[in-house]
Amino acid sequence: MRRVYLFLALTFFAFGLNAQNVQVTFEDEVVNVDDTVNIEILPDVTFKSYFYIENITESPISAMAKYTKILSEEGDEFLMCFGECTIGNVAGPVTLNPGEIFEGFDIEFTPTNTNNRLLKVELYEELTNDILHQYYVKYYSETGLEQAKSNSFYVKAYPNPANNHVKISYSIPNKYSAAKIVVRNMVGQVIEQYDAKVSYNASLNINTSDFVNGVYFYSVIADGVTLSTKKLVVKH
Q1: Signal peptide location in the record (predicted)?
Q2: 2-140: what fold?
Q3: Per residue in 149-201, pLDDT tens?
Q4: Burial grade of 7 (CB within 10 A; 0-12, 13-18, 19 or more)
């Protein structure tokens, strides 16, 4: 009988570890429990990583955020914002109602070199300390600074969904001579068009206060070639 009780206890314990109370999203991709988010870094360039947190239970959650340095350099400082911003490793609490998506969680890091770093990020219940979700953030570099600046391409929008404004951060490889960012609606009509810099680590601020609520698509086009198209949601 004791073996049965032990088996049941272990089963419930394992179920508790695997039960997911919140869903974490990074750059439109779901981050599962114990996943690793990889972020390529360059020295003296600030990297801000945004994570969306959704309460997928039927009850309110009072959530805290914590990171632990698994691999780091002396003097490394991370700025974590979870409701409020802190240079400490714990932030919160933030109340998440059922179905609510919280967009105010980000971690900012400015490396002084390209050595690898690794953080363990934990979201936990304020009163019980129960783990809601945990994952890892790895900072790494595979290329030299000038090569990365020359060849790098990325684009992302924040916040998304947007209310009155959205910031589009991007890098466009210097092999292109001219670029633009085009915003279209669901039927493909051009709503706005902006000149973009052929540059590393550039950004564009767009006023969306006059945009009608709905789904849009923003594209980065360089020398007539569409490099990327992503979804933008406007919700006032």
Answers
A1: 1-19
A2: Immunoglobulin-like (2.60.40)
A3: 566 687 888 888 999 999 998 888 888 999 999 999 998 999 999 999 988 77
A4: exposed
Contact 186, 143 (CB under 8 A): no
Residues with Cβ within 8 Å of 123's Cβ and at least 6 positions away in sequence, in order, are 22, 24, 53, 63, 64, 65, 66, 131, 132, 133, 134
217 Cβ contact partners less than 8 Å away, ≥ 6 residues apart:
183, 184, 185, 186, 229, 230, 231, 232
Residues 63 and 56: their CA atoms lie apart, in Å, by: 13
Tell me which residue of 179, 184, 189 sits closest to 230, measured CA to CA.
184
Give me the residues paired with residue 71 across strands. Answer: 118
Helices H / strands E in the chain, number of each: 2, 18
Distances from the Cα of 189 to the Cα of 175, 210, 231, angstroms? 29, 16, 14
Are the folds of 2-140 and 149-234 the same?
A: yes
For tokens 């780091």, the residue is 72
Q: How far is CA 158 from CA 30, 52, 103, 136, 232, in A?
A: 17, 11, 9, 22, 9
Q: What is the pLDDT of residue 9?
A: 43
The CATH fold assigned to 149-234 is Immunoglobulin-like (2.60.40)
Nearby residues of 3 by Cβ (< 8 Å), 6 or more positions away: none
Residue 31 has pLDDT above 60, yes or no: yes
Q: What is the pTM of this model?
A: 0.60
Least confident of 139-148, 178-187, 217-226: 139-148
The domains of the chain are located at 2-140, 149-234
